[in-house]
Known about the structure:
With about 200 residues, the protein is of the alpha+beta class.
Amino acid sequence: MSSSGVPLDWAAGDGSPGVNVLADLSSAAVSAIAADVGRGREPGELALVSLHWGGNWGYAIPDAHRAFAHRLIDEAGVDLVWGHSSHHPLGIEVYRGRLILYGCGDLINDYEGITGHEAFRDDLALLYFPTLRPADGRLERLVMVPLQRRHFRLERAPRDEAEWLCRMLNREGRPLGTRVRQDGPDRLVLEWQAEH
């Protein structure tokens, strides 16, 4: 999406390379994704949609992003929405049993040493390990492993940094109905209210 800094003229065309740019978050965009999912999905397969959207810094999740992610699940049959663009993790939602990662943050980047956004702790990263039920795509478990980038290398995050990530994800997940708990020294586990 152009909200992530990708210009619309980077779009792939007939006979020309590029990226699959969504011009907007309209009903037509949901319908187009639903058609792609329907054409490409074999029986027993799960559908994941990867969206490069939103700004690089800040925790706010636009209402339009939430509504679009919900429509992808409701109308396009998507099992997991994987969002990225933010240079730090964002809040996590479980909607109708489906995982929505609005912004996963960077795992590797070349921004180390650039100043101005230290409060977001972009040196901290997460590995995401979701377990989805094969029969219906519902989330069974999400384990996250906290890491820290130092000198362009990934290392296990120290306990206090993992605790910082846990507090941040709880703060940002509260309005989305999720919380995170530490499960040992180097794992975070997502908790959510199951829908009936």
